[in-house]
Every structure is written in structure tokens, then in C-alpha cells.
Amino acid sequence: MVQRVVYGAASILLIVMVFQVDVWIAQSTNRTEGRIDDLLSRGSMLPLFFVVVLTAGALELRRLFAACGARTHAKFAHLMIILFLLTPWMSAAGWLGN
User: From first to last of its 98 residues, what are the pLDDT tens digits of the chain?
Assistant: First the structure.
């Protein structure tokens, strides 16, 4: 039980820190059009964070299923995680059109 409380508190602290860094990046970048700085000025680093977290979760889930002998479509799952989370990010930058 103590381990769960410690990991939970550490996870909450990590998420709060990511949000704070995102706000700091948004406030410290210059407003430019059509560059990566434009995304950063809006505080758009969170989709990248969630891609990393969800991909790690998908890897762990694949390991659990593999331990039970189940076959998974891991490559497809990872591709969909990346596409679903980065599409709004790329769209906001104008990389996918207006």
C-alpha cells in the first residue's frame, strides 16, 4: 500500500511539473507563424508527453498479454497512439492544412 501511495504521489508531481514546464515554454517563446515555436507558444508540449506515456503503457500491456500467450497487434497500436495524439498538434501548426 505504501508503494502505491508513493508512486501515485510521484506520478501526480510529474504531471504537475509537465504542465508547469508547458506553461513556462508557452510564456518564454516568441510568437512566430508556421514554425515549431508557434506550437510551443501555445503550450502544446502535452501531446508529446502523452504519446510517451501511452506508448509505454501499450508496451506494458503487450508484455502482459504475451505472458498469457495472447498475440497482439503492437505495431498497429503504437501507430494509432501516435497518430491520434499528434494529429491535433500537427493540425494546429498548419502542417495538415487549415
Answer: 788 888 888 888 988 888 788 777 767 765 555 555 565 555 567 777 787 888 888 888 888 888 988 888 888 888 888 888 777 767 666 666 55
d(CA 50, CA 66) in angstroms, rounded, equals 24
Whole-model pTM: value is 0.55
Q: Taking the C-alpha atoms of 14, 15, 20 and 24 in order, what is their torsion angle to the nearest 10 degrees? A: 90
Report yes or no: 55 and 81 within 8 Å, Cβ to Cβ. Answer: yes
Q: Which long-range contacts (CB under 8 A, 24 or more apart) does 59-67 make?
A: none
> Cα(80)–Cα(28) distance, rounded to whole angstroms?
32
- State the cell numbers at 33: 507563424
Q: Give Cα 35 distance to the centre of its chain.
A: 20
What CA–CA distance (Å, rounded) separates 12 from 30?
30
The Cα 88–Cα 42 span in angstroms is 13
